[in-house]
Structure formats: structure tokens, C-alpha cells
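Is this the right way to post C-alpha cells for a design question? Let me know if I should format differently. Anyway, here goes:
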């Protein structure tokens, strides 16, 4: 009976409790609002801050909600070192991953911007074990540039008009300067002649005074 006795301690595997790594908050950054011309390419930046080293399991996700729409759609996802782009949605063949996950950059490039692309893009990032964080959003506003065809005659006329206007301005300034100079000379001449006239009158009065006294003296002696 004793040889049938088996110690259970050798058969029962030891169970080591698995303690999950502690997760810390991750902070995600995007721009607040972006503007771009219709037909151009625009880069939508997304980065994150984490206290841990960048994990090989880092992920980036982009979603899009058009203005006036209630629901968002996923348009891009990066995981396992590979980017996955939605080629069936509104950005088919126009979305490209231009980020660098090793530097915590999950930016995407939207090509050939259309006016209907206006809306809100939201980026979410995970850096396991840091998976807790609030996604960040950026609003995209496409802009139109109105270009009107301009004929060569219109351009020529505008140039001629500008040259004529400049000539008229030069002539007006020339005659205005001549008028101001002539007026200044005239005022100086009048002032100079006025001083000479006063000087002559004073000298004549000084010369006439002895004669008058002499005549009075002669009259008195008589």
C-alpha cells in the first residue's frame, strides 16, 4: 500500500500569480484648427506624451466626423508596425501615413483636399501599458480661392493708368513746390522793401528837424 502513495506536491504545478503592469496616463496632442486650400495637401499631426519608453505595441487611430454628422468613422489605424488605411470611405486613395511611431508621431497626410472634407479629425494613441488617455481632435476647414481670368488688355490698361497717375502726381508736386517757393520769395521781398521805406522816412525826419529849428530861430531874431 505504501508504494502506491504519491506525493501530490510533485504533481501539482506551482501557480505564480500574474501581476499586470501599472498603467499611467497618456497625453495626446493635435492642432486645434487647420486651414488649407482646396486641391492642396495638408498634414494632420498627432503625437503623445508617456512616461514610459515607446512600446513596440504602440498604436494610432484616426477617426473622422463630417460637419453636421452625428457619427464618426475610422479612417486610419496603425498597429504592429503596419499602417492600415480605409480605402473605401471619403478619403479613398487620398490618405497616407507620414508619422514616425518611434518618435511618437502618428501624423497622416490628406491629399487633394476637397471642400467636402471639412469636419473633425480625432486621433487616439496607446503606448502599452499606458492606454488611459483622452483622444485629441482637430477641425479641418478647406478654403476656396477665386481666380478670375484677366485679359492682356486689362493688364496693359492698368499699367498705363498707373504710369499716367504717377506722372500727374509728379507734375502736381512740381507746381506746388514752385508756388510755395514763389510765395516765400514774395514775402521776403515785401518785408525787405518795407524795412527800407521805414528807414528812409526816419532819415528824412532827422534831416528836417534842424532846418525847422533854424527857421524858428531866425524868425525870433527878426
Amino acid at each position: 500500500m505504501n508504494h502506491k502513495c504519491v506525493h501530490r506536491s510533485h504533481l501539482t504545478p506551482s501557480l505564480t500569480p500574474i501581476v499586470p503592469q501599472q498603467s499611467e496616463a497618456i497625453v495626446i496632442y493635435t492642432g486645434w484648427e487647420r486651414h488649407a486650400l482646396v486641391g492642396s495637401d495638408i498634414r494632420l499631426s498627432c503625437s503623445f506624451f508617456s512616461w514610459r519608453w515607446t512600446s513596440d505595441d504602440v498604436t494610432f487611430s484616426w477617426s473622422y466626423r463630417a460637419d453636421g454628422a452625428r457619427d464618426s468613422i475610422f479612417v486610419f489605424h496603425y498597429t504592429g508596425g503596419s499602417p492600415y488605411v480605409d480605402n473605401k470611405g471619403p478619403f479613398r486613395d487620398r490618405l497616407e501615413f507620414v508619422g514616425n511611431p518611434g518618435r511618437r508621431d502618428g501624423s497622416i497626410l490628406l491629399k487633394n483636399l476637397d471642400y467636402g472634407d471639412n469636419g473633425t479629425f480625432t486621433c487616439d494613441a496607446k503606448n502599452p501599458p499606458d492606454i488611459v488617455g483622452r483622444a485629441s481632435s482637430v477641425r479641418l476647414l478647406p478654403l476656396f480661392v477665386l481666380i478670375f481670368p484677366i485679359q492682356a488688355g486689362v493688364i496693359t490698361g492698368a499699367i498705363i493708368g498707373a504710369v499716367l497717375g504717377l506722372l500727374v502726381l509728379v507734375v502736381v508736386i512740381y507746381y506746388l513746390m514752385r508756388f510755395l517757393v514763389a510765395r516765400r520769395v514774395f514775402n521776403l521781398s515785401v518785408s525787405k522793401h518795407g524795412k527800407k521805406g521805414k528807414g528812409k522816412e526816419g532819415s528824412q525826419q532827422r534831416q528836417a528837424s534842424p532846418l525847422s529849428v533854424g527857421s524858428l530861430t531866425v524868425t525870433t531874431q527878426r
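Format looks fine. Someone answered above. Worth noting: The helical segments are 152-221. The two ends are 193 Å apart (CA to CA).
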